[in-house]
Amino acid sequence: MTAPDQTDSASQGVEAQYRQALDEGRFLIQHCAGCDRAVFYPRMLCPHCGADKLAWTTPDGRGTVYSTTVVRRKPEAGGDYNVALIDLSEGVRLMSRVEGVKPEAVRIGMGVRAQVIQQDGHGLVVFVPNKEAQ
Question: Are the C-beta atoms of 42 and 58 separated by less than 8 Å?
Fold first, then answer.
């Protein structure tokens, strides 16, 4: 499958295009041809240079935990989970969670890799520890 066509944004906004790709199991970010920088969260104009030359691209998926916290919940409410800010190798930062380890085990500087999971019928980007980076 190909990336969503940015020019079709008049009939479908960039956020809807991003979410549709996630629902299909694909994680995409944008790249600006004007300044050659990655862009995330999806936008119509580049926040760095103002150009409208944004194209969808598949990120490498490797990242590093920039910050993390544990959200405490009762076990019957699903238990504790972490919320983390992740710096992707492309230079963008996003909020997600790290799975596959206890919430308290997520550490700043931890190498992680993105994956798309399905939750409540929709695609969601989460991260797992990158064994190669540890």
Answer: no
